[in-house]
Automatic annotation (TrEMBL):
<dbReference type="InterPro" id="IPR054691">
    <property type="entry name" value="LeuA/HCS_post-cat"/>
</dbReference>
<feature type="binding site">
    <location>
        <position position="28"/>
    </location>
    <ligand>
        <name>Mn(2+)</name>
    </ligand>
</feature>
<comment type="pathway">
    <text>Amino-acid biosynthesis; L-leucine biosynthesis; L-leucine from 3-methyl-2-oxobutanoate: step 1/4.</text>
</comment>
<keyword id="KW-0028">Amino-acid biosynthesis</keyword>
<dbReference type="InterPro" id="IPR013709">
    <property type="entry name" value="2-isopropylmalate_synth_dimer"/>
</dbReference>
<dbReference type="GO" id="GO:0009098">
    <property type="term" value="P:L-leucine biosynthetic process"/>
</dbReference>
<comment type="subunit">
    <text>Homodimer.</text>
</comment>
<dbReference type="Pfam" id="PF22617">
    <property type="entry name" value="HCS_D2"/>
</dbReference>
<feature type="region of interest" description="Regulatory domain">
    <location>
        <begin position="408"/>
        <end position="526"/>
    </location>
</feature>
<keyword id="KW-0464">Manganese</keyword>
<dbReference type="InterPro" id="IPR002034">
    <property type="entry name" value="AIPM/Hcit_synth_CS"/>
</dbReference>
<dbReference type="InterPro" id="IPR013785">
    <property type="entry name" value="Aldolase_TIM"/>
</dbReference>
<keyword id="KW-0479">Metal-binding</keyword>
<comment type="function">
    <text>Catalyzes the condensation of the acetyl group of acetyl-CoA with 3-methyl-2-oxobutanoate (2-ketoisovalerate) to form 3-carboxy-3-hydroxy-4-methylpentanoate (2-isopropylmalate).</text>
</comment>
<feature type="binding site">
    <location>
        <position position="216"/>
    </location>
    <ligand>
        <name>Mn(2+)</name>
    </ligand>
</feature>
<keyword id="KW-0100">Branched-chain amino acid biosynthesis</keyword>
<dbReference type="GO" id="GO:0003852">
    <property type="term" value="F:2-isopropylmalate synthase activity"/>
</dbReference>
Length: 526
């Protein structure tokens, strides 16, 4: 895909310009404490982003860890329709590592960044403005040796001095940066001011029309989406950096679903083209939430469970008479499907396969389809009504078990009685060797965790335990998330089952697997 610079766009008379959607769920999203993902999980999300027709996928930060490097490389080899990008600090070693990871990509972008605010330069980088100016130029010059798609971000841009920003950005554009990403790193921006800063930069920098301008906002004051849209409308940005569900460090990043639906629903105002297949938004949201264990709040715009629910009689009556009385978007346009029974015990393999296709779930091989179908049959034996959400959860579980699982759940029995201390016996395998353990606790979940710990002795601290019903009714499967912390690392484990105690054991073991396998990462903000 060839992106037009702002200059080329303005030559294309009044036709709507394209707004580039740059997704950073796998990089900035993953920086959220507890949101770390395995390589396979990242690949699943990247495929969903491609299905959704995201223009650029920031797949990670190659120099951060061997795990990040491998995930970017794998994604670069798989994704064909979106540009794959790696973040990199502004030094040769990081840039070469990013280029190496991106080598298999059909379209690749190196995104290099360096802080430009007085505070970051003096206190964090301990560099003078002149040193920062030189290093930024050298970084872009070096990145251009590997690809002609190079993005530069002045980190903490919104708290930087305008004269200095103009000097640095003019220089990096002259070195060949094709995208300039004006970062509101700490979410300090206010829409009007942020938009005008961007406008001023574009007006003052003589070669500004040689680059596409981008916005990257954090949500510390709850204004990330508003700031991004002000950057687009006032500042003339034609790329928005965002994440699914607004996942990201601290209060998160700009939410992709909100940007896309705002620009699409209010096309009369924004007059911009967006290439996203919006029907893939809810599946993407559910996938990211399921993998990271970060629940989506019910009243969250677009992807929250209540986003299209009308409780008041007046609203229900209005919607029944004419939908647009109270609905500005259609639930099906963003991928909500009614909670309907889709399959049952008697459904065959073909019906199951067809439903997977309709849900946009692409399993790699017939062996994978067979394994998922076997799980489906097992579930259908225990649960009479199978919903789309059940299928998504079981496929997810199936794909999760592809990562080599050091700890693997086998079975459990658990006893609770009023007035007695709950006890549990858990059977699970450790590196393929089956092992059985027993424990007691204050509740059934505490008992299974204590039982597992008698064998594993992980020493990890449980930060979060949450149970979520996948569908409605008491027949629903429970999806459990357990967040563990150990030696500064935070991981999430997710498990689903009709029995929430079993789901808890699976979630705990899944978190232990992540603690077992992950290598340390660098924080890109350092
Ligand atoms: O918030 C930020 O400044 C970033 C940069 C690396 C673009 O994420
Ligand atoms: Zn960021």
């Amino acid at each position: 895909m060839v992106y037009k610079t702002n200059q080329e766009h303005s030559m294309a008379a009044n036709s709507p310009e394209k707004l580039i959607i740059f997704d950073t769920t796998l990089r900035d999203g993953e920086q959220s404490p507890g949101a770390s993902m395995t390589k396979d999980e990242k690949i699943r999300i990247a495929k969903q982003l491609e299905r959704m027709k995201v223009d650029v996928i920031e797949a990670g930060f190659a120099a951060a860890s061997p795990g990040d490097f491998e995930a970017i490389k794998a994604i670069a080899g798989i994704i064909k329709d979106s540009t794959v990008c790696s973040l990199s600090r502004a030094n040769d070693k990081d840039i070469a590592r990013a280029a190496e990871a991106l080598q298999p990509a059909e379209r690749k972008r190196i995104h290099t960044f360096l802080a430009t605010s007085p505070l970051h330069m003096e206190k964090k980088l301990r560099m003078t403005p002149d040193q920062v100016f030189e290093q930024a130029k050298l970084a872009v010059r070096y990145a251009r040796k590997f690809t002609d798609d190079v993005e530069f971000s002045p980190e903490d841009g919104s708290r930087s001095d305008m004269d200095f920003l103009c000097r640095v950005l003019e220089a990096v554009i002259a070195e060949g940066a094709t995208t300039i990403n004006f970062a509101d790193t700490v979410g300090y921006g206010v829409p009007e001011l942020y938009g005008h800063m961007l406008k001023t930069l574009r007006e003052r920098i003589p070669n500004s029309d040689k680059a596409i301008w981008s916005v990257h906002c954090h949500n510390d004051l709850g204004m990330a989406v508003a700031n991004s849209l002000a950057g687009v409308m006032i500042g003339g940005a034609r790329q928005v950096e965002c994440t699914i569900n607004g996942l990201g460090e601290r209060a998160g990043n700009t939410a992709l679903e909100e940007i896309v639906m705002a620009v699409r629903t209010r096309r009369d105002y924004f007059n911009l083209d967006i290439g996203i297949d919006t029907t893939q938004i809810v599946p993407a949201s559910k996938l990211v939430s399921q993998i990271t264990g970060f629940a989506v709040q019910p009243n969250k715009s677009v992807v929250g469970a209540n986003a299209f629910a009308h409780a008041s009689g007046i609203h229900q009556d209005g919607v029944l008479k004419a939908r647009d009385t109270y609905e500005i978007m259609r639930a099906e346009d963003v991928g909500w499907s009614a909670n309907k029974i889709v399959l049952g015990k008697l459904s065959g393999r073909n019906a199951f396969k067809q439903r997977l296709e309709e849900l946009g779930i692409a399993l790699e091989s017939e062996t994978e389809v067979n394994a998922a179908f076997a799980r489906f049959k097992e579930l259908a034996d225990r649960k009479s009504e199978i919903f789309d959400e059940d299928i998504i959860a079981l496929v997810s579980d199936e794909q999760q078990s592809h990562d080599k699982e050091f700890y693997r759940f086998v079975s459990l029995s658990q006893h609770s009685e009023t007035g007695e201390k709950p006890s549990a016996k858990v059977v699970f395998s450790i590196d393929d060797k089956e092992s059985s353990c027993e424990g007691e606790g204050n509740g059934p979940v505490d008992a299974i965790v204590n039982a597992i710990e008698t064998k594993v002795a992980s020493g990890a601290e449980l930060l979060l335990f949450s149970v979520n019903a996948i569908t409605t009714g008491t027949q629903s499967q429970g999806e459990v998330t357990m967040r563990l912390s150990k030696a500064g690392r935070i991981v999430n484990g997710v498990g689903a089952d009709l029995d929430i105690v079993v789901a808890s054991a699976k979630a705990y073991l899944s978190a232990l697997n992540k603690l077992h396998s992950k290598s340390e990462k660098l924080n890109p903000q350092l």
